[in-house]
Design brief:
six-stranded mixed sheet; 9 helices; alpha/beta; four-stranded antiparallel sheet
Length: 258
C-alpha cells in the first residue's frame, strides 16, 4: 500500500496558541504551539488529565479551541473566525486527518468492507468499484483480507482496531491521529495494532500519537513531547527524553511509567 502524503513543504500540522476552556473554570490547554513536519512521527506523553486527548481533538476540530489557530496541510482555522467559516474549514481538515480512538467506533450493522467504503462513498463520492478496490488493498495491508464480509461483533478488539485504521486510511488522509489506540485491548492484542502503526510510520505517514506504548515511542517516534497541566514540559528525541530528561516533572512522570 502506498501512503498518500502531502507534498507541501514545512509543517503539515501547525497549532498556535491553543487554549481550551470547558465551562468557566476548566482550563485544559494553556496556549500550546505544535509544529509537525511531513512524514514525522510525534508521540505525546503525559499523565491522565494533562490535556493530550483534548489537543488531538482540537487539531481536527472535534473540539473547537477557545483561542488560537490550527493549520493542517494548508487549511487554516482561527478560533475567533465566524462560525460558518470555522465549520466549512473544519470539514476540510477532517478530510485530511484520520483519527483512531480508544474505542473502535465501527458501525455494528455494517460488514468490515462496508465500514471501510462508507466514507469514500459518501464523502469523497467514489464509485463503489473504486472504493472496494482500495478497501481490499487496505485490508491486505492490515492483514484482514479474510474478514472482509464479517461484522465487527465477530472480530477481536485488535482486529476491530486494525479495521478502524484501514477505514481512516481509506479517506487518504495527510495526517493520522492516534488517541490511545491500544488502551482498550487485551495485552496479547496490543502488538498487532502497534505493528500496523509502525509500518504506517515507515511508509511516511505524518503521525501524532497519544500512547503509553513506550517501545513505539522509543523505536518509532522522531520526537517525544511531555505534557502536564495543559502545558508542554519538555520535548526531544526519544533518546534524550528517556535517557537524559532535563525537567523534574519529566523525571517524575517517567519514574511512574518505566
Amino acid at each position: 500500500m502506498s501512503v498518500n502524503i502531502s507534498e507541501k513543504k514545512g509543517p503539515v500540522v501547525q497549532a498556535k496558541g491553543i487554549h481550551k476552556i470547558f465551562g468557566n473554570m476548566n482550563h485544559v490547554l494553556r496556549g500550546l504551539d505544535l509544529d509537525v513536519g511531513k512524514g514525522e512521527t510525534v508521540v505525546i506523553l503525559g499523565a491522565s488529565g494533562s490535556g493530550k486527548s483534548t489537543l488531538l481533538r482540537c487539531i481536527n476540530f472535534l473540539e473547537a479551541p477557545t483561542a488560537g489557530s490550527i493549520e493542517v496541510d494548508g487549511t487554516l482555522i482561527r478560533a475567533d473566525a465566524p462560525a460558518n467559516e470555522r465549520e466549512a474549514k473544519a470539514l476540510e481538515i477532517r478530510r485530511k486527518t484520520g483519527m483512531c480512538f480508544q474505542s473502535f467506533n465501527l458501525f455494528p450493522h455494517m460488514t468490515v468492507l462496508e465500514n471501510i467504503i462508507e466514507g469514500p462513498r459518501t464523502v469523497l463520492k467514489q464509485n463503489r468499484k473504486e472504493a472496494e478496490e482500495y478497501a481490499d488493498e487496505l485490508l491486505d495491508w492490515v492483514g484482514l483480507t479474510d474478514k472482509r464480509g464479517e461484522y465487527p461483533s465477530c472480530l477481536s478488539g485488535g482486529q476491530q482496531q486494525r479495521v478502524a485504521i484501514a477505514r481512516s486510511l481509506a479517506m487518504k488522509p495527510k495526517v493520522m491521529l492516534f488517541d490511545e489506540p491500544t488502551s482498550a485491548l487485551d495485552p496479547e492484542l496490543v502488538g498487532e495494532v502497534v505493528e500496523v502503526m509502525e509500518r504506517l510510520a515507515a511508509d511516511g505517514m505524518t503521525i501524532i500519537a497519544v500512547t503509553h506504548e513506550l517501545h513505539f515511542a522509543r523505536d518509532v517516534a522522531d520526537r517525544v513531547m511531555i505534557m502536564d497541566g495543559g502545558n508542554w514540559v519538555e520535548e526531544g528525541t526519544p533518546e534524550k527524553i528517556f535517557n537524559n530528561p532535563e525537567q523534574e516533572r519529566t523525571k517524575r512522570f517517567l519514574a511512574h511509567i518505566l
